[in-house]
Specification:
Mean pLDDT of chain A: 88
Number of helices of chain A: 8
Largest sheet of chain A: none
Largest interface: A-B, 39 and 40 residues
Helix content of chain A: over 70%
Low-confidence stretches of chain A: none
CATH architecture of chain A: Orthogonal Bundle
Oligomer: homodimer
Radius of gyration of chain A: 18 Å
Order of helices and strands of chain A: HHHHHHHH
CATH class of chain A: Mainly Alpha
CATH topology of chain A: Tetracycline Repressor, domain 2
Chain lengths: 172, 172
């Protein structure tokens, strides 16, 4: 992405961009911050619409897929953007990402009430990453084109099978 | 990545690179092809070392994590490289990726013998993507640094819980 293309599309002078944002990475972070807020709200709505923790987790996964399907470019910017080598992602942006994980922690803590906070956070991140992986490879259509309904069915089936594992006696 | 940096590190002339590879993308694909062959062999060994399909799937997931952990740069090149806009990934390379999925299809077909080939392929891709997501977000240390043992424990627990879902009566 070049600053010149951004300002051309926005119909403003190149200098205006750099008056507002120190560099292109900070502009992308600002966009990603708005995307995260919207995604977070979608996830909160999905979770709040259900009662049981299993239903909340499934609703979260499907809302995540839906958001990515409807906003493919914003989604790509959110997860594919890299800061320049040696430049860390700012703390405030990391905290925004942590907000997504917190949505997953809540129902997981109901399914595994014995977990301490650190393990619960790791567990939520793991579940999040698995769902993220399924959604991402589908959205990218990287190695095969998949239709949305098929992905939705697969994602539901996968999450439900994972959740059925909680019914077995040995919990992890 | 610039061609000049590659040839400087390799100690050869810039022209030599372009005699061997038409462009940098084809060079990266050639590297990725070798990485895929090695990864595929690791997965085959892991799967062959176990008898039960559940054990094979867990061994595949852990071998995948181990390969990524030991070869972070090759792994990144394999999954982060994008062809230029409008240029498709060559068919021969897609088929190499499909070889990884085939390793997952085999034990899955034993767990769900009733699936037709198309559904089995989709199922294998879904399971692969979930494991990939867990390994990738961990390797990148994107939003939090995780130590390898913790990731290994989480990945094992996640896969085992998913597999316990097969014990429940309603299979997907």
């Amino acid at each position: 992405m070049r600053a010149r293309d951004v300002t051309k599309d926005a119909g403003c002078a190149l200098g205006s961009l750099y008056n507002a944002y120190e560099d292109l990475d900070l502009l992308i972070l600002a966009v990603n911050s708005r995307t995260l807020a919207r995604l977070h709200m979608s996830l909160q709505d999905a979770s709040a619409s259900k009662e049981a923790p299993e239903e909340k987790l499934l609703a979260l996964a499907l809302a995540y897929l839906e958001f990515g399907t409807e906003n493919p470019n914003l989604w790509a910017a959110l997860f594919d953007h890299r800061m320049p080598p040696g430049v860390p992602v700012p703390e405030w942006h990391l905290e925004e990402h942590a907000g997504l994980i917190a949505e997953v922690m809540h129902p997981l803590s109901q399914l595994s009430p014995g977990l301490d906070d650190a393990t619960l956070g790791l567990r939520a991140r793991t579940v999040f990453s698995a769902v993220h992986g399924i959604v991402k490879l589908s959205l990218e259509g990287r190695f095969v084109a998949l239709d949305t309904d098929a992905v939705r069915t697969e994602l539901s089936g996968f999450v439900q099978q994972f959740l059925r594992g909680y019914q077995a006696d040995k919990q992890y």
